[in-house]
Amino acid sequence: MRNKILILSICLFVIAGCSKSKSELFKETDSFVESLHTTYESYGILGGSEHAKTTSDGLYTIMPVGRLINVKIQKVAESWEYEELKQDLKDHYEGNAKVNDVYICQAGTIMIDCRN
């Protein structure tokens, strides 16, 4: 019985970790990744700010820069939160030939690299 409760608790934790906010984040980043292969050659160095999106809960801002997609957590965030977000995005884009890499850049935000 204890093992069943432990397993159920772990399952609920995993399900809760797949928040609506991250689902929306993935939807928005997917849209930018796709647009770089269908609509835009590049968003330009400064041109991406007019295309920036923020999730409905205000937690993430996504902004294309050239052929990179910048993802920023819109609250004071610890480095482990960015590491976790980076890993979630890496897992999401694993096997996607349109994405070369997902990494934390020097500014402390996440970059999704879609360069050719």
Care to describe what's here?
With 116 residues, the chain is of the alpha+beta class. The protein contains 3 helices and 5 strands. The chain has helices spanning 2-17, 20-38, 79-93; strands spanning 53-54, 60-65, 68-73, 101-104, 110-113. A 5-stranded antiparallel β-sheet has the order 1-2-3-5-4, with helices on one face. A hairpin with a 5-residue loop joins strand 4 (101-104) and strand 5. The longest helix is centred in the N-terminal third of the chain and has 19 residues, at 20-38.
Properties at a glance:
116 residues, five-stranded antiparallel sheet, 3 helices, alpha+beta
β-strand percent reads 15-25%
Number of helices: 3
Radius of gyration of CA atoms, rounded to a whole number: 16 Å
Structural class: alpha+beta
Envelope shape: globular
What order do the helices and strands come in, and which of them pair?
Blueprint lengths: L1 H16 L2 H19 L14 E2 L5 E6 L2 E6 L5 H15 L7 E4 L5 E4 L3
Antiparallel strand pairs: 1-2, 2-3, 3-5, 4-5
